[in-house]
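Consider a protein example.
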Amino acid sequence: MEDELKPMDAEQLREYGHKMVDFIADYYKNIESFPVLSQVQPGYLRELLPESAPPHPDTLQDVLNDVQSKLLPGVTHWQSPNYFAYFPSNSSIAGFLGEMLSAGINMVGFSWIASPAATELEMLVLDWLAKALNLPDDFLSTGQGGGVIQGTASEAVLVALLAARDKVLRRIGKEALGNLVVYCSDQTHSAIQKACQIAGIHSKNCRALKTDSCNDYALSPESLDEAIKQDLTIGLIPFFLCATVGSTSSTAVDPLRALGKIAKSNGIWLHVDAAYAGSACVCPEFRIYIDGVEEADSFNMNAHKWFLTNFDCSALWVKDRSAVIHSLSTNPEYLKNNASERNLVVDYKDWQIPLGRRFRSLKLWFVLRLYGLENLQAYIRNHVKLAKYFEDLVAQDSRFEIAVPRKFSLVCFRLLPPQSNEHCANKLNHDLLDAVNSTGKVFISHTVLSDKYTLRFAVGAPLTEERHIVAAWKILQDEATTLLRTVQSMPIL
């Protein structure tokens, strides 16, 4: 029967799998033909698809036709070589193959016994990556710490915060929860705010300390020290500091060693969020940016951002895994087994928020094995080189300014208003962003630094070449010319 259900027939998998791989390969082959930023309007898809599921099966070709004609117009193409917004979310053949195998095996690796290879490969591959980053031995699984793959950096900071919270509450009593204080900079990712909400830390006790342009928006040790002293004076309990290496807005780098010494002297858990820039630190010339990581209690980087590992794969290392396990462990009867009861194994269910987890280490293992560290380093260096090239182009046009010195592959810049009219500067840059993105040819994003609307150009898509940088810059220049001509023709009020 044509309609007979074959949920896992090996030959049908082979046939359909070949067709899907061909479809995906054609997608990448033609990816530059799509508008980078989806141009559809809200609610567009409801008008194109039926209101109910089909009672009888469609063919795979029918489904793929709908993907091509109805879904792809609503996709923003993060893998496009003309994608320069937010931060990259890398795909690669190696990452895709690892993801495919993970989907094929489709196990749920909550504990060692659920699939020993999944747990042991994750421990091994995160030790490999820790060594590539030259992290302290305390973060290796051979000691008291170790690594675990979370879904995102938001999950990683939540896990670290919960471990730190419960560690201090075990010492001073749960009734002190309302007095716990968290510190970060005003450039720290908003994930820390959500983590505080989930962990029961009152919003008034989450200190987002002000930064400014004089030190490239890095967190000042002096401001941290002063904030801690003030809180101690009024009876509050400092317990957690989130430092950032490569902040979202401008890739600010907090001074880890100085901040770490302050944290340690006050019994504060130091978490380092290097979600974006951590990948660059496998290159010796960028490793300097995490100098002082030996002072940290936990460290996180997203392999799915800039390390050719398909989303999601956020690596979190901790020095004291017992703190995480004490905070997140559950042990219902139906999950008990000899290996776990005898403490012979790691059960990653106790290192994360959910119980279930995928075989995510496969794709990171494939990436490291099929590319090797030297090629991965060269890949990152090329993006940094392309970003420097774009930065030089911006600096050569007197109508623009570089807003923050570039460190990695993000360039923050602004279009200057005519006659130094700062009143219209923010609107001018907002309009430039909209004009550029509306072309569909490139996609960039923005931030606000020192109250100035600032454009962000993040290089990091796997297919980006110098010609894409040149083409993007021409679009920016052309749209800027049109906008400035309009502004200059308007009367000054």
